Amino acid sequence: MTNLVNRSDQDGIAILTLNRPEALNALSPKLFIELHEQVKNISNETDRVGCVILRGEGRSFSAGNDLKAIQAGEKAPSRHFQAETLDMIENLPQPVIASVHGHCFTGSLELALACDMLITSPSAKFADTHGKWGMVPVWGMSQRLTRRIGPLKTKEMMYTGRIVGGEEATQIGLANECVADEFLQARTLEIANSIIENSWHTLRSDKFLVNQGMSMGYEEGKIFEREKSPGPDPDMQNRVKNF
Looking at residue 182, what is its pLDDT? Predict the structure, then answer.
């Protein structure tokens, strides 16, 4: 049976690929079960995996939640399983890069927002279409999108459901970079390689401090960093010596 989420590893980088190209990688409950398992495994491999890339096979990153699966009565293992899977991605010890081309609608936009960075291409189409279907966000859209691009642009995207292209996504702070489609995979891998050249201990510590600090006020966040910092990499002296 074909996997709905494939994993390949390359020199400390784990690449997770949504693998339903015939359905534009629509996010069915079955796909989420496989994604959940892959993310769970990676969370326990901090000695082998320094960075994660999340991408989609075929013409799109993902068209969003699988409406056909919803109509067919397909269900996730628990009520908030999808939301909890996104939380797992957000809380992975390793940095996660979303590599987005083609469709990235609603549920798949929420999936991309759970990643630390987002590299995109001109073909990308970002949109929140909850309003089109009479749905309401429960996976974290109202919080993650607001923190990414601010309340003004978030409300515009949520209220209108309009499509934001790859270049505009970069301009409004939704994405880090927009590169030509033919270079997207190579550029994402290049960035991931530049990340894992640094101390993996520092990468995990940076992510922990930033993510935790986001839920605090400025002064509280500074005190948290001071008191809860994991401290330097045990290999710091060798890194300095070999500089």
Answer: 98
